[in-house]
Amino acid sequence: MNCNLQKDNSDNSVVVYVKTNYYSDKDKVLHANKTIRVLRRKSTRFNFFDEDIANMGAEGFAQSIVNLWTVEDGYYRMIIVNEHRDYESGVIDDYEFKLVPHEQ
Known about the structure:
Layout: E1 14-24, E2 30-38, H1 48-63, E3 74-85, E4 92-101
Antiparallel strand pairs: 1-2, 1-3, 3-4
C-alpha cells in the first residue's frame, strides 16, 4: 500500500462513478454487482486507485471500501479512512477507503 496519502486531502482527489447492476442467468440465479469507474478528468494529482488495485488485486481493493454496498448510484470522491501506523516507524501500513458524495 502507498504510504504517501493524506486523509481527505482535497488537492489529491479520485472521483468515481458507482453503478449497481442486477441480472439473472439461465439457471435462475440473481447476480448483483457494483461497477466503479474512475473519472480521470475530474480526478486530480496522484491516482491511488490504479496503484492499489495493482498491489491488492480487485477483490482486496473492493473489500477495503468500507461503504461500497451502502451507497446509491452516483458520483463519489474516494477518501482514506481508518489509517493504521506502524508502532516503531510511524509509517502508514494499512488504511481503508470511503466513498463520499461528489458535487458536480
